[in-house]
Predict the structure.
Amino acid sequence: MESSSEIARESGRLEGSVGYELKKVQHDLRLNMDGELKELGVTTPQYAALSVLAEEPGLSNAGLTRRSFVTPQTMNQILVRLEAAGLVERRAHPEHGRVLQAYLTEEGERLRRECAELVDAVEERMLSGLSGGERSNLLALLRRCSAALRPEDSG
């Protein structure tokens, strides 16, 4: 059985590459999210940080960086802006004073919920042509692909 990369090489077309198609979907998803979130004055990376903090209050810059797929410098800029806007507050860790933990404010949580509604609608539009079973299968397959590329998850 031929792999998708072999099929793509033989056809000479990027469209036969799973990696290319994944990147194309990610790009289209990001553009749509950016467009929707712009209405609320929020960037997609800011929304990611707000969402992660809603799930894991008190994360440090390093924890947020890992969960939000940005560099430490970018996350610091995001947090500075969110803090200045009154959406996030940072407090010194009780045991490690140099570590700052970030928490959503009430306003930050309110805005995150508004953003989530917009992002959920974008995701629903993206998945609208798939049945419930196909959606579940897609999610499971994407998780397996991701796990296969992470050293801590491989054999």
Summary: The CA atoms of residues 139 and 145 lie 10 Å apart.
